[in-house]
Amino acid sequence: MNLLIIFFIYFVFSTCNANPTRIAGGAVADITQYPFATSLLSNQGQGAYVQACGGTIISQTAILSAASCFVTNNVVNPVVWWRARVGTANSNTRGLIYLIRRITTHSDFQSATRVNDIAVLRTSLNIVFGQNVQAAYIAGGAYSLANNQQVWAIGWGATSVSAPSSTVLRHVQIWVNDQQVCANRYSEVNYTVNNNMLCAGWLDVGIRGQCLGDTGSPLLDNGVVVGVYSWTQGCGVSRFPNINTRVSSYSRWIEVTATAA
Predict the structure, then answer these.
(1) Domain range holding 176?
(2) Model-level pTM?
(3) For residue range 77-93, what is the model confidence (pLDDT) as tens digits?
(4) Would 159 be classed as within a structural domain?
(5) Closest CA to 24 of 221, 242, 183, 176
(6) How many C-alpha atoms does 20 have within 13 Å on its Cβ side?
(7) Per-residue confidence at 29, pLDDT binned at 50, 70, 90?
(8) Which end of the chain has the smaller Cβ count within 10 Å, N or C?
(9) Looking at the structure, do residues 158 and 232 belong to the same domain, yes or no?
(10) SS3 252
(11) CATH code, domain carrying 53
């Protein structure tokens, strides 16, 4: 495994080859297992801030997430709608909350199809690193995943379509699915899956995977962020995999966006 580490910004890439509100079919996780996990809180322009999406710390000033979290009627939300809670497995208590100074979504993001569903948030202040707060390793352009490779999904999403948001971080082990099988299945319901998307789930076996409120949360291969959760048909539906934005396809965009002045 070859790792490219940019120490001066604590931003890390991996170029090696290589279970939307609560995680469905998962178990409670500890923040020490995933110190880069970020609960993104929103007030949608009014009222209290509540957990709405997930994210990943990738530097002391940057958080990786999904563009679909921050775009309403094709307009990027004002930064004051969003805050980031880090350093805790609880979405509504403890840790530290950081204000957001910039939300950058991919210029070619399409809300209807979730193509290029990726975003980087910049915090107003430097994130203070410690035992419970660290930057994650990010898959670089040469990172590859085999079919049926085990990966881990984390988030504060729902355990089912009808369930409320989780107040605690959860994780679940799932598997990388064959891209063509995934694309064929989604074509049955008139959705398009392209090669910049990563399919993962517990295909044809049981209800396990990402769900409502997990959007923007990372998909991990041995601790390396290989996907950003984007969308799925239902929640943990065995016939349809979870669709993640494939991080290796956007590693250069992430690097440039996370280091921009």
Answers:
(1) 144-247
(2) 0.91
(3) 999 999 999 999 999 99
(4) yes
(5) 242
(6) 17
(7) very high
(8) C
(9) yes
(10) helix
(11) 2.40.10.10
